[in-house]
User: Which sequence fits this backbone?
């Protein structure tokens, strides 16, 4: 058996903890061909980073078949900035960045603080009444959905629908999805696109101070977003922003609970250590573990030539445990100063929502420990049985 075939995502134990396999995959320092997944694997920091930055390794979306059944889902991706390459990607990113500005993100800070206060108040009531609350369900998960709803200009009472639509759609990125999950993704894609389309039509008539209005109005060199592109951008902002924030926070909290010395350190110095702690949370157990690229031309990565049409899977979770880049990579250290992780990707597809995710985590993490300085586990966390988007279903705490 080739080394690459050690990775078997049908093995539940590997999904729970892939890090031992990652160590074996990194041993050669090169890309490895996986017959099981018909793609090259990039397990080291160098190969994964090079894969993400190579201009001839594109993010090429392959329509889900039959296309008639998957029409909406397919254009939600083919017209998305995530699944486009230059020149389309260049045009989309220029337009979106004119609307999704650093100033607009920074303006969300007071709203994030107030939302954290409200969620923590409810969590405290729940802890007082029941003896525990759920760090995910009661805090980390609703926060980014509420903030993105506010950002887009969607009523907060739609947050549950937004969260459900997002969770249904992203299950399509996994290798072992079921037919039931596929049908749910179709329905959620349809519902989400119809909802955003209706809001966009209303904003054209009655502009508001929200991101959907900005995306409707934005223009660059005479170019505007068409309806499909606008809807795809809103869906991507919810899916990527929600999943990265929730999973980054949740994975990091479990790591903290598993390392009591680091938990105590952060509880004692929540504001001082939050900046390095959140980067270590993202590195140590990354929210995204695999990002696929396809060769549009023969491409050299290290000693390996990736041929036209072949795929490369950048294993971000493995790259962020590479001992040639990170000292004691399997040690969770919230004071780690040198931390060039690639949890948010690299190159032209670096996560456009990373600044917002960081702002949310940098705000919510210290506020959690200010409110609950003696925070501890109140039961066994429940892990999601997913590999690509790695996270938890519940983290009970008291």
Assistant:
């Amino acid at each position: 058996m080739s080394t690459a075939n050690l990775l078997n995502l049908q093995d539940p134990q590997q999904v729970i903890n892939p890090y031992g396999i990652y160590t074996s995959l990194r041993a050669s320092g090169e890309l490895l061909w996986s017959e099981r997944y018909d793609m090259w694997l990039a397990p080291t920091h160098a190969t994964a980073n090079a894969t993400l930055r190579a201009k001839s390794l594109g993010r090429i979306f392959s329509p889900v078949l039959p296309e008639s059944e998957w029409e909406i889902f397919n254009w939600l991706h083919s017209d998305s900035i995530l699944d486009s390459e230059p020149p389309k990607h260049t045009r989309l990113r220029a337009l979106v960045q004119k609307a999704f500005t650093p100033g607009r993100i920074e303006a969300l800070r007071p709203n994030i603080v107030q939302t954290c206060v409200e969620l923590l108040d409810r969590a405290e009531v729940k802890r007082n009444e029941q003896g525990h609350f759920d760090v995910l369900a009661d805090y980390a998960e609703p926060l980014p959905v509420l903030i993105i709803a506010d950002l887009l200009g969607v009523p907060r009472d739609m947050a549950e629908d937004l969260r459900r639509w997002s969770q249904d759609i992203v299950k399509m990125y996994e290798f072992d999805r079921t037919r039931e999950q596929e049908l749910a993704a179709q329905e959620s894609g349809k519902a989400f696109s119809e909802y955003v389309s209706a809001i966009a039509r209303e904003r054209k008539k009655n502009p508001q101070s929200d991101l959907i209005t900005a995306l409707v109005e934005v223009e660059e060199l005479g170019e505007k977003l068409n309806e499909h592109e606008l809807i795809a951008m809103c869906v991507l902002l919810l899916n990527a922003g929600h999943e990265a924030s929730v999973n980054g926070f949740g994975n990091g909290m479990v790591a903290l609970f598993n390392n009591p010395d680091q938990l105590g350190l952060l509880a004692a110095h929540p504001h001082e250590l939050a900046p390095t702690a959140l980067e270590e949370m993202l590195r140590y157990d990354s929210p995204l573990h695999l990002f696929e690229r396809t060769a549009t031309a023969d491409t050299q990565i290290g000693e390996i030539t990736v041929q036209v049409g072949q795929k490369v899977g950048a294993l971000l979770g493995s790259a962020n445990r590479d001992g040639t880049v990170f000292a004691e990579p399997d040690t969770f250290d919230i004071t780690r100063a040198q931390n060039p992780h690639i949890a948010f990707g690299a190159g032209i597809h670096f996560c456009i929502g990373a600044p917002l995710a960081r702002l949310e985590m940098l705000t919510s993490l210290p506020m959690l420990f200010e409110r609950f300085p003696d925070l501890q586990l109140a039961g066994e966390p429940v892990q999601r049985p997913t590999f690509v988007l790695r996270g938890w279903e519940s983290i009970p705490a008291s």
Observations:
- The chain has a mean pLDDT of 93.
- The chain has one domain: 3-397.
